[in-house]
Amino acid sequence: MFPFQHEHLETLIALVDHGSFDAAAAELHMSASAVSQRVKAMEARCGTALVRRTLPVGVTPAGETLLRTARQIQRLQHDALEELGLPGSGVRTEIPVVVNPDSFAAWFLDVMAAVHDETGATFTVHLEAEQHSADHLHRGTVMAAVTATPRPVQGCTVSTLGTMRYRAVATPAVVARHGGVEKTLAALDQIPVLVFDRADDLQHRFVREHLGRTLASPAHYVPASAQYTEALLQDLGWGLLTDPFCRQELDRGTLVELAPGVELTVPLYWQRWRIDSPLMDLVTRTVERAASRVLQPVP
After folding, report:
1. Does residue 42 contact residue 7 with C-beta atoms inside 8 Å?
2. Which residues of 38-66 are buried (b: 16+ CB within 10 A; e: fewer)?
3. Nearest Cα residue to 16 out of 92, 78, 75, 96
4. What is the DSSP string of 176-232?
5. Complete domains list, the chain, with CATH
6. Rounded distance, CA 284 to CA 233, Å?
7. What is the per-residue pLDDT across 83-135, written as a single tens digit (0 to 9) for each?
8. In this structure, are residues 144 and 279 in contact, taking their beta carbons and an 8 Å threshold?
9. CB of 218 within 8 A of CB of 192?
10. Beta strand pairing status for 156-170 and 193-195?
């Protein structure tokens, strides 16, 4: 028999989602000490710590397992009540997902709009580089992920979405400053580069794979897709843009492709919990349809 009451699992979810005992208490309309007592009762039952008493609250490996299970039970409960026509379950239809920033900007908003229009569900979106997004599934903080990881996380299914293709670009002013396209390309490891954040290794991969060198130039960190493009247009350096963001600028001549015909490809996958959930089935179909309009087939 599963040893945890529904109220205990609800408390763990609220604690992680809201980040502190006080905030979880406010969400659950109870005292912070009562939240703490519930957590301690679960930890006593497990014989190990489940949460890290930090700000925000974190979960231990055991806590990750229980959190993932708690969210799945919550989702299944809500789906069952919906199918039975019994509203007022008290469980809000909220879908936590993790998406890489370029996918979020290029096509995932279409997913959110379509699912919300059909079901009224809301999304909590975590932005994370595709190389690391599957970690959120391990931690139990999300139901599904757009990820570069083809191997399914334990307890998840995986489907192929397609490939994002990136081109090395800079403005005509940057190219002219360095003596033309060929000389600019040859000097990429010395010219300032625009990088999304410190987890972003795409520019390093491009220089390593196509130039055979190590990228060691100064970097501007611009952690937002629209502002990343704008920073390129402000002559701050060179960078990699995926087709949805650079095609129009290339056609206008406001950006120049530094290595025509050379692309960095990033296959993307959709991983979601392996549970029978009509809502998650709908989200998956919508994700696959939206991605197919933007991404290229995986070779």
Report:
1. no
2. bbeebbeebeeebbeeeeebebbebbbbb
3. 96
4. HHTTSHHHHHHTTTTS-EEESSTT--HHHHHHHHHHSS---S-EEE--SHHHHHHHH
5. 1-69 (1.10.10.10), 164-265 (3.40.190.10)
6. 35
7. 766 665 545 688 999 999 999 999 999 999 999 999 889 999 999 999 999 99
8. no
9. yes
10. unpaired
Q: Is the peptide bond before 56 cis (omega within 30 degrees of 0)?
A: yes
Mean pLDDT computed over 176-182: 92
Distance separating alpha carbons of residues 81 and 83, to the nearest angstrom: 5
Least confident of 159-168, 193-202, 231-240: 193-202
Angle between helices 21-28 and 32-46 (to 10 degrees): 110
Tell me the C-alpha to C-alpha distance, in Å, between residue 107 and each of 98, 127, 143, 200, 204. Answer: 14, 14, 19, 20, 25
DSSP state for residue 234 in the 8-state scheme: T
pLDDT level of residue 80 (50, 70, 90 thresholds): confident
Task: Return the DSSP state at 108.
Answer: I
Task: State pLDDT tens for residues 244-253.
Answer: 888 889 999 9
pLDDT for position 81: 75
Cα 119 to its chain centre, rounded Å, is: 22
Say if CB 87 and CB 120 are below 8 A apart: no
pLDDT in tens, 233-283: 999 999 999 988 888 899 999 999 999 988 999 999 999 999 888 889 999
Please, which residues bridge with residue 145 across strands?
Answer: 98, 271
Q: How far is CA 279 from CA 154, 167, 273, 284, in A?
A: 21, 36, 12, 9
- Give the predicted TM-score (pTM) of the model: 0.79
Per this entry, what is the length of the chain? 299
Longest dimension (CA), the chain: 72
